[in-house]
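Retro notes - structure team

What went well: the batch runner handled both jobs without manual restarts.
What didn't: labels got mixed up in the shared folder, which is why I'm recording both outputs here explicitly, each with its sequence directly above its tokens.

Job 1
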Amino acid sequence: MDAIQQLSSGLDTIWVVLTAAMILLMEGGFALLEAGFVRQKNAVSIIMKVFVDISFGALIFYFFGFALMYGKDAGGLIGTSGFFMGGDLTHISLSISHETYWLFQCAFVIAVISIVSGAVAERINFRAYILYTIAMTGIIYPIAGHWVWAVNGWLGKLGMVDFAGSAVIHALGGFSALAAALIIRPRIGKFSPDGTANIVPPSNLPLASVGAFILWFGWFGFNSGSTLSATNTSIGHIAVTTMLAAAAGSATCILFTMMRYRKADPPMVINGALAGLVGITAGCAFVSDVAAIIIGAICGIAMVYATEFLESKGIDDPVGAFPVHGISGSIGTIAVGLFAQPDAIKKGTAGLFYGGGIELLGVQALGLIIVSLWGFLLTWGFLKLIKLIIPLRVSRDEELVGLDVGIHGVPAYSQEEGFIDLGQLKSRK
């Protein structure tokens, strides 16, 4: 390796490690967003689940998740090498080391499980959540990711395009979240006997807003970092489309909720920005700036309707995980087949609106259906299996008193300002 190659490889390594750290910081965003959306008595439980995501997710992905996702295979279905980051990984040809690549992908897998955690907030058994985290990070996500992103993945070979994960991460996570919400049932008091939804006020919207801003920041690492190269000239364009889609999602929700509810709805606006970010993730490198705005705006409006639809069907999703990730991830995946600019993906390929025909659109739709069904059905199956071992849901008393005290033995916010030594007070008199 000559000096220029060494310099390029060094820059790429710095870039990938830096963007991986940005994505990992998004866990702080998830923690603040979800803690702000749920009731105060359940804030600690949110934080504990995020620690499960990071710690168990990283270890399981190191032990065997990465191998199943990126290991060498013969049929395009599942990897068979790379367990404990050992064995044959020579088929992964990159300018960065395999360990650096693992770190970046590890940040992705942690984000996937964090999507599901919000849909089951305030009522899931902590031990059951740990077991499900192992299933998601070790089996469900890695196998679906292999189909799309691995060297010989069968959906990738068909031509499916998902630059940073609208389908593999967000649609998969969103439909998994839907399955989990259906199985675990609504929170006590969320719906009246006649089926009407009751408002459960968020405990701290400023906190949730800060969480959203951190996620927005981390998304630049999510999307731009997926170039895996510090010298890729598309980094700037990717960052711009990411910014515009998020802004369009948020702005659209502000205007749309003002018209629909006669006031700008803060939780909807927060989720509108996230919906735009989710929607642009698949095509951020392949669509124009204007297309990014259109995608973000559509995702913002669709998220509002999806949130209302879930409530009308008696499905309790406290943070809007399915509307934000499942619906917007689906829109973003399909949008590639519509808005991909000519030759942006590869020479001779374009979206339907740019004269590319329906081939790419058809592959995107097929891949989306496969990945979404995989997430939904595998989550359903694993949760049913876990239910045979331990309860999926906390007891009624634990839910009413709050998971913070009921499960973790400590409230998020203490009402005491400190301890007072009565003996010292008496001695001063």
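Job 2
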Amino acid sequence: MVTPWGEITDTIPQDEDFDLADIQRNGELIALTLTGPETYYDYHGRHLGAQYLLCQRFADKLGVMLRMEVCRDSAEMVQRLKDGEADLVCYPVTKKGPGWLVGQDKDDLQHELQAWYKPELLDEVKKEEEFLLSSKSVKRRVFSPMLNRENGIISHYDSYFQRYAATIRWDWRLMAAQCYQESTFDPQARSWAGACGLMQIMPGTADHLGLPRASIYDPEQNIAAAARYLGELDRTFSDIGERSERIKFVLAAYNGGHFHIRDAMALATKNGKNAHRWGDVEPFVLGLSQPQYYNDPVVKNGYMRGSETVDYVRKIHERWNGYRGIRTVRSTFAPSAVPQKATHERKKKYQI
């Protein structure tokens, strides 16, 4: 095509195979995968999964960006690869090498992949992921959960909690309990995923909330922004009429993402439970770590580490009760218990 600025040609060749040199020239490797703990999932706004981390290393080796696209099942992956919509299918490795499918007529990419892969790479990325998911990956000092119990002083930031919790009609001690769970009252806390400050706010979320990144570690501004975010989540779950119940959903969404919590609510509805009661939804938050649930057609956002979110809500409520002088009665519900499901399991047409 000729324009006033000269001739423009498509960066993707139309009449020849799109192989390694073209991928590197275009600057992007497109991979297809399925959601799951071993493949690819969202964790606090960052992507994880051994296959994703492995594919990211391969993309780094090629010197290109990685675009990972999630398919509903293996049949879709195979068809999209066949149609030339991606460069490879990123699926669990075998002992002989990556069990990935490379697009047709991409011999150079196939040879590059085979030359690059070493069995120890999978062990390396699994250890990397294990570290990222552990508390060791969060840089923070640990402070006492209560500064002065006799005088009811929880932290050095109580006045901020009192001021900004009031704007969303929360008990300030609940917000303090959440803060301890997030950062143990360390204003300089930082997670590997980039969450910052007392309330562990992600930079992207800070931008959305109008919190300047230069002020993200400022205690008052961090707490004020967190209150705004909690208020947004409260409105997101305004369909939950009972306030005490809605608080649990808001806390769960702050930790695990409101889209995952909505998935769990959809599962609860599908299984005849009350989607507005946390006790009914909690088992399905846990269930989203199992394929028969995260592959269910009503689930839109795939796998999540539900046990972490369930534990997050429980610990905050227990600490909140402690701050109020209320004795916590442990639920008889076992966190590891997930509803058994005999139907609705999706069958894969292809095994890769």
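One thing worth noting from job 2: The mean pLDDT is 86.
We'll revisit the folder naming next retro.
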